[in-house]
Amino acid sequence: MISAIILPDSWYEEASIFIAGLNSLRPRYFLITFPESPDFKSKSYLSSVGKLMASNQAFSAMHVVPKCFASGDKIDLWPSLIQSHSDMTWVSSLFFADSWEEVATALGDFSEEEENPDDFATHLTCQYQPSYTDILSQWANEGRNTYHPGDFFKEDILSAISQMRGNWLYWGHGEGDKLRGYSHLHTVDLLAHKCSTQLNSTLWFTCCTLDRNYPENIALAWYLSGATKCIFASPEKVDTESNKLLSEVWLEIAKNDNDKTVSSVILDVLRKNPEVFEKILNQYFLLGIPWVKGNL
Predict the structure, then answer these.
(1) Are both 105 and 244 inside the same structural domain?
(2) In degrees to the nearest 10, what's the CA dihedral of 37, 212, 157, 295?
(3) pLDDT computed for residue 41 by the predictor
(4) 220: closest CA among 60, 42, 78?
(5) Residue 201 near residue 228 (C-beta atoms within 8 A)
(6) Sign of the alpha-carbon torsion through 208, 199, 287, 51
(7) Could you tell me if 236 and 185 lie in one domain?
(8) pLDDT at residue number 193
(9) Which contacts (CB < 8 Å, 24+ apart) does range 126-129 have?
(10) Closest CA to 123 of 202, 57, 186
(11) In the prediction, which pLDDT does 38 show?
(12) What whole-number distance in Å separates Cα of residue 231 and Cα of residue 262?
C-alpha cells in the first residue's frame, strides 16, 4: 500500500531523489507539496489533496511541517488526525522538521529497521482506577507486560519505562505536564528516565497531554526528545467512556494482525463505526512516523 509524504515546495527536488531510492524495491511513498509562506495555515489546503490521495489509493499521510509548529499554542493549526473528504478518508500524522535531511534520516532508519526487525514487547500502564486496571487485568491474561499501579511505586515505574522496548500504552488522567498515575509522572521525570532504545510507539489514551496552554507539553516533550518514533496523544478532556471504547476496539484490532501499522489500526478503528469513532479519534493527534508496527 502506498502512502503520502506532504512537504514544503522547496524540498521537492532532493526529496524526490531520496524517495525514488526507497521506492526502488517496492513502491511505498509519493510526494505532495504545499506552498511556503509566513502566514501559511497547515489545515487550509488539505481539502485540495483529496484527489491525489484517492488516485493513489493512499490511506495515510505524514505531514512534514516546520519545528515552530511543535508547540501547544500552534495545535489549532495542525491538520486533524482523520481527514474525511468527498474523494477519500485518510489518517494524517505530523512530523516536525526544518530540513529534508531530518526527514530522510528518520525514514532511512525506519526502512533499515523494517528490513531487520527487532523483537519487542507491549507495555501497559495505567492510573489506579477500576476502569483502567480492568484493561490491564484483561491484557495480563494475553501475555503482555502489565504494570499494575498497586504493584509499582513511582520510582519502580520510572525504572521500568527506562528499560522498555517496543510499545508503551497508558490509560488514566493526564495534564499538560504530567501523567497522573503512579503518584504523578511529570515531564522532567520521564525525560530523566527516557528509554535507552527508541520506542516503536507511545499510545496515551488519556486527556490533555498535548495541552494547548503548555508550549512544550508532556507529549511534545516526550516525542521531541527522541524517545519514541510516534506518539498518539490528545489536547482535549476526552471522556473516560469514550477512551475506554476506543482502547478496547484498538487493542482487539492490534492484537490480531502482525501486518498492521499504527495508521492502519486507526483506520480500522474508524471503520468499525465512522460516526462514533471519527469524533473520538479527532480529539487526538499522531506525531511522528505513522507506518511503524501497529500490532501489540
Answers:
(1) no
(2) -60
(3) 57
(4) 78
(5) yes
(6) negative
(7) yes
(8) 98
(9) 126/170, 126/171, 126/172, 126/181, 127/171, 127/172, 127/173, 127/179, 127/180, 127/181, 127/182, 128/181, 129/172
(10) 202
(11) 54
(12) 10
Q: Does 136 share its domain with 239? A: yes
- Rounded distance between C-alpha atoms, residue 8 and residue 45, angstroms: 12
Question: What is the reported pLDDT for 112?
Answer: 87
pLDDT at position 168: 97
Do 91 and 267 meet the contact criterion of CB atoms below 8 Å apart? yes
- Domain contains 295: no
Cell 529534508, residue located: 100
Q: Give the span between the Cα atoms of 85 and 14, in whole angstroms.
A: 30
DSSP string, 72-139: GGGGGGSPPSEEE-SS-EEEEEEEE-SSHHHHHHHHHHHHHHHHSPPP-EEEEEE-SSHHHHHHHHHH
Residues 6+ positions from 173 with CB-CB distance below 8 Å: 127, 179, 180, 181, 206, 207
Final residue of a structural domain among 115, 142, 175 = 115
> Among 30, 118, 67, which residue's Cα sits nearest to residue 223?
67
Structural domain boundaries, residue 264:
121-288
Residue pair 249/243 in contact by the 8 Å Cβ criterion: no
Q: How far is CA 52 from the centre of its chain?
A: 23
Residues in the chain, pLDDT under 70: 37-47, 257
Residues 133 and 280 in one domain: yes
List, for residues 213-242, the tens digit of each pLDDT value: 998 999 999 999 999 999 999 999 999 899
- Amino acid occupying residue 52: L
pLDDT score of 126: 96
